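User: Okay, second chain of the day. Same drill as before: sequence in, structure tokens out.
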Amino acid sequence: MDERERYFWDLTGYLVVPRVLTAEELKAANAALDFCHDQRLVHHAAEGSRARDSRRLGGSGHIGISASEELLTLPRPHCEPFRRMLANPAVVSRLNEMCGQGFRFDHGPHYIGGVEGTAGLVMHGAGEPHRPVVAYHHQAGRGYCAGVTVAWNLADAGPGDGGFACVPGSHKAGFPMPRGVRTADDDMGLVTQPEVKAGDVLFFMDGAQSHGTLPWRADHDRRAVLFKYAGRTATRTGRSAELAPPQIHWGEELVEGMSDVERAVMYGPTSAPGTDQVFLTVDEDGTVRPG
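Assistant: Same drill. Structure tokens below.
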């Protein structure tokens, strides 16, 4: 990661690295996705469900894989292109600076597909609400982002084609995102769709930066595969939620007989605990209760 990339990343919250995949690697990855389509591993989500009530982002349902880890467990040779993406040198060298050494793969990979007319996804993130598990901060001459998504682009997304979009610089915003920006109906000229070519890799601050997708307008299919990484001490999602309950994290013997309030602080680390019981409130009379 040279000084130009570092400056662009810190300023905008995303970075495109061109031509990471060779022509042969790109062909193999697309062949694997063709296999998924042929085997009907691909599903179509409800029409327009991700666009909510946005006028600009509306369209048909998006295309994806039913199980996020499916691409890593495909029969050989179809899993191999995605396994090689996990620790590709172009990814490792940059995530060492973005997330810190010892970064880890948190969840995915997610196949994001689309045909002409596929709906977009409303802008989300920008630290609203603030979540340390994916936040960005700068200290001692370097930046650190606990949650970074790496998007492998297996098809071109030219100007106006749609696909990934973001609000550059929103990871440093000090005020809430206006509704018009969130829906892209009145985006103030802030919503940007970076141009990418097949074989390019796009990094973005997932959660710290406001991002989403614009409706797919190209006459060829959209194809992107997203790998979600985290800093070594961060847990974004995945297996952590299953291991977090006190009786699993500590063992039933230790937490047996504890009250709900006591159990609340015994949950293991996860960004998605699946219960409000982990959030404690102190009433004016000094009573501590969940919720």
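The chain has eight helices and 14 strands.

User: Thanks, on to the next one.
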